[in-house]
Amino acid sequence: MALSPEQLLSLRIGGATVADNLRHAVATGKLIEDSDGGLRIASDRRTGNNWAWVEHGPPLGCTFLMTFLFRQAYASGAVPHGCSACYKVKVLPRSMRELVAAWGIAKRIECRSKWGVDLNNSYSQNIYAGYFYTAGLESARVIYRIARDAFAGNPKIAADIGVSIKRGCSEYEAALGPSDTYQFAPELVELEAYLRTRYRAAPKQAGVPAVPLAHWIDVAFRIGDDTYLDFTGGKRLRPAAVAYDPR
C-alpha cells in the first residue's frame, strides 16, 4: 500500500525526519519554499564554463539527486535510490593535449560523458578528468573496455592513461563509507517520486560556451602544461616575464 506524503516525510534519514531536514534547509536559506509547497535550491553554483558534455543519453538529474535530495532532504545521511545504479568510468588525462584527444574519442562512444578540469572538485586529486556515466557495473565494464581500446589507437594519448570504474559520486563515499556497502531502503523509491513533484529546477543557464577551450587553456598555462600551445597556434597565452641576472 502506498504511503501518504506525511508518512513519507516522517521517514528518518541522517538522524532526523525528512520533514525536519527540509524545514532546516529552508530555515538556513539552503532551500526556498514557494507558496504552493514547491522547493527550490537557493543557490545553484554551477561552473558552466568548465565541462564539455557528450550528450549521448538522457540528462542525469544530478542537481535533484545530489544537491536537493542528498545534501538537503537526506542531510547527507543516505545515498538517493535514484543513484543506486550509477557507475562511472573515470579517465585521467595528464595534459590538455590528452584531455582534448580523449574528449574527441568520447564523441564516438555511445555513452554520456563529460570532460574538463577537475581542480574545483574537493574529492579529486586530479587536474583533468573525463567521466562516462553508465547504469550498472556491467555496463561500466563494457564502456571501460571500449574506451581503453579506443584510446590505445591515438598517438596523443599515453598508453598508461588512467582509466578506472567508480560508483556514484565521491561525496557519498566521504560521508557514508565505501560504495560497495551502500544500502537502499525500498521506501526511498516512493519518497523520491513524491519529492520530485515538489522540486522546482532552476532555469537553464544561458550563454554558456559549448566548448570551454579558453578555460582549459588558462588552467593549462597556470599549471605549466605547455601542451595548450597545440590549441593557440603555438602562441603563448601570456608573455614570459623578463628574468634578470642576479650577479
Strand content: 15-25%
> What count of domains describes the coordinates?
1
Give the spatial strand order of the biggest sheet.
5-7-8-6-9
The N- to C-terminal Cα distance equals 85 Å
Poorly predicted tracts of residues: none
Care to count the β-strands? Answer: 9
Number of helices: 8
Mean pLDDT: 94
What is the SS-derived class? alpha+beta
- Sum up the overall morphology in one term: globular
Largest sheet: 5 strands, antiparallel
CA-atom Rg in angstroms: 21 Å
Helix content: 25-40%
Helix-strand string:
HEEHEEEHEHEEHEHHH
What attributes does this structure have?
single chain, 247 residues, alpha+beta, five-stranded antiparallel β-sheet, two-stranded antiparallel ribbon, 8 helices, globular
Textual characterization of the structure:
There is one protein chain. With 247 residues, this protein is an alpha+beta fold. The chain has one domain (5-198). Helix content is 34%, strand content 16%. The chain has a 5-stranded antiparallel beta sheet with strand order 5-7-8-6-9, covered by helices on one side. A two-stranded antiparallel ribbon has the order 1-2. It is globular, with a radius of gyration of 21 Å. The N and C termini lie far apart (85 Å).
